[in-house]
C-alpha cells in the first residue's frame, strides 16, 4: 500500500441517525471516518447498533437522517457505484440452499456488474478451503462451511472495502484462524476492513483503530495503541503470606480487592496520576501487619477499559 494513501478517508459518515418505527433511536449522531487500508473494529455489546450501522453503509437499511460517502460518493444517490466496491459478510447465515457453492459465488459476482472471472472464484474458494465442495449444494454444508460461502460471496466481486459483521461469533477455531489470515492478506493488498464484534480480544488482536459503540452512540474512536496507553491502568498483585478474610477497615481508601481465596490483594492504580499511592499502600500494609511474599504488576487490558467506559455511559 502506498504511504500517501494511509490517511486518506474511504468512508465518511456524517451526522447519521436511525430511528426504527415508532420512536426507537438505534443510532444517534454518528460521525466517523474510515481510513483507506485500515482494519477498523466497531466494538459494542449486543443491541448497540453495530449491525444497523453496517447495514446503512452497505445500503441495506436506509438512514433516518445524515449521510454516508464512500470514496466521496453518496451511498443513496450513487447506490450502484458505492455498493459495487463493498463486500459484506452478514451476521446471519443467509444463502440460497439449493444452489451449488460455485454457482452462488459466481452469480454474486455478476450481481455487482463484474464480468465472469472463474480464476478469481477458484482462488477464493481455494483460500477458504471450499474448493472440494464447489459442486455441493449449500444446504448440504455444515454451518462453518456455509459461513465460508458467505465470505466467498462477499469477496466474489473483488471489493475495496470488506465488512465483517460479528465474523467469529459461534465459529470454530479453524475458521477463525483462516479468517484472520485472509483478513490480514486482504489488508496487505490494500483492502479496507471494518468488523464488528462484542469480543474485546478480537478488536485487540486485529484492529488498527477501535470505535466503541453503546446504545446507538459512538462513544470513542481511537488508535488501538493510543487507547491502550491513554486509558491504561495498572494492577499491583500482592501475594500474601497469610490469607485474609476481608480487607481491614484502614485500607478501605485503596479500594483493594481480594483474589485467590484471600491469598492475593489486588490494587488498581492510574499510571498517569502524579501519585500511584503504592508507597502509602505498602506502608499501611506493613502497619496493619499484613506481610506479602511476592508482588507483580500487570497492565489492564482493553477489556477493563471497555467495561469502565460502558459503566461511565450508562
Ligand atoms: N428492524 C428493526 N426494527 C426495530 N428495531 C430494530 C430493528 N433492527 C434492530 N433493531 C433494534 O436496534 C438496536 C440495535 O440493533 P443492532 O444494530 O442489531 O445491534 P448490534 O448489531 O450491535 O447487536 C437493538 O435494540 C435492536 O433490537
Ligand atoms: Mg449485530
Second-tier CATH architecture of the largest domain: 3-Layer(aba) Sandwich
Task: From the alpha carbons, calculate the radius of gyration and give it in angstroms.
Answer: 24 Å
In this structure, how is the largest beta sheet organized? 6 strands, mixed
- pLDDT < 50 runs, ≥5 residues: 1-6
Shape: elongated
DSSP summary: helix tally: 10
Tally of distinct domains: 2
Describe this structure in words.
The protein is of the alpha/beta class and 314 residues long. The chain folds into two domains: 3-229, Rossmann fold, CATH 3.40.50.300; 231-312, Alpha-Beta Plaits. The chain is built from ten helices and 14 strands. The protein has a six-stranded mixed beta sheet, with helices on both faces. A four-stranded antiparallel beta sheet has the order 2-1-4-5. Strands 12-13-11-14 form a four-stranded antiparallel beta sheet, with no helix packed on it. A hairpin with a 4-residue loop joins β12 and β13 (264-270). The model is unreliable at 1-6 (pLDDT under 50). The structure holds adenosine-5'-diphosphate and magnesium ion.
List the topology elements:
Blueprint: E1 9-20, E2 24-35, E3 39-43, H1 50-57, E4 65-70, E5 73-74, H2 79-83, E6 86-89, H3 101-111, H4 118-127, H5 143-155, E7 161-165, H6 173-188, E8 192-197, H7 200-206, E9 209-214, E10 217-223, H8 224-230, E11 233-240, E12 257-259, E13 264-270, H9 278-287, E14 292-299, H10 302-312
Parallel strand pairs: 3-8, 3-9, 6-7, 7-8
Antiparallel strand pairs: 1-2, 1-4, 4-5, 9-10, 11-13, 11-14, 12-13
Helix pairs in contact: 3-5
Bound molecules: adenosine-5'-diphosphate and magnesium ion (MG).
Magnesium ion binds at residues 50-51, 91, 165-166.
Amino acid at each position: 500500500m502506498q504511504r500517501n494513501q494511509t490517511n486518506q478517508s474511504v468512508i465518511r459518515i456524517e451526522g447519521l441517525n436511525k430511528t426504527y418505527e415508532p420512536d426507537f433511536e438505534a443510532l444517534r449522531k454518528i460521525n466517523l471516518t474510515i481510513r483507506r487500508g485500515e482494519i477498523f473494529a466497531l466494538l459494542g455489546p449486543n443491541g448497540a447498533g453495530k449491525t444497523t450501522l453496517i447495514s446503512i453503509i452497505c445500503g441495506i437499511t436506509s438512514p433516518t437522517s445524515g449521510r454516508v460517502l464512500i470514496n466521496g460518493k453518496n451511498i443513496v444517490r450513487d447506490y450502484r457505484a458505492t455498493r459495487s466496491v463493498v463486500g459484506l459478510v452478514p451476521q446471519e447465515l443467509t444463502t440460497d440452499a439449493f444452489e451449488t457453492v460455485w454457482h452462488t459465488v459466481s452469480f454474486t459476482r455478476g450481481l455487482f456488474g463484474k464480468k465472469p472471472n472463474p480464476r478469481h472464484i477458484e482462488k477464493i474458494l481455494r483460500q477458504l478451503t471450499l474448493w472440494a465442495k464447489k459442486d455441493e449444494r449449500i444446504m448440504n454444508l455444515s454451518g462453518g462451511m456455509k459461513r465460508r460461502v458467505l465470505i466467498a460471496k462477499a469477496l466474489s466481486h473483488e471489493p475495496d472495502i470488506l465488512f465483517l459483521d460479528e465474523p467469529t461469533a459461534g465459529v470454530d477455531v479453524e475458521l477463525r484462524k483462516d479468517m484472520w489470515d485472509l483478513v490480514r492478506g486482504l489488508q496487505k493488498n490494500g483492502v479496507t476492513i471494518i468488523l464488528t464484534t462484542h469480543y474485546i480480544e478480537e478488536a485487540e488482536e486485529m484492529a488498527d483503530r477501535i470505535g466503541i459503540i453503546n446504545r446507538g452512540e459512538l462513544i470513542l474512536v481511537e488508535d488501538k495503541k493510543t487507547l491502550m496507553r491513554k486509558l491504561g491502568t495498572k494492577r499491583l498483585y500482592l501475594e500474601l503470606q497469610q490469607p485474609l478474610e476481608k480487607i481491614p477497615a484502614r485500607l478501605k481508601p485503596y479500594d483493594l480487592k481480594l483474589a485467590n481465596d484471600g491469598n492475593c490483594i489486588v490494587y488498581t492504580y492510574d499510571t498517569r496520576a502524579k501519585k500511584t499511592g503504592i508507597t502509602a499502600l505498602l506502608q499501611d500494609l506493613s502497619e496493619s501487619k499484613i506481610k506479602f511474599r511476592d508482588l507483580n504488576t500487570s497492565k489492564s487490558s482493553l477489556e477493563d477499559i471497555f467495561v469502565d467506559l460502558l459503566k461511565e455511559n450508562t
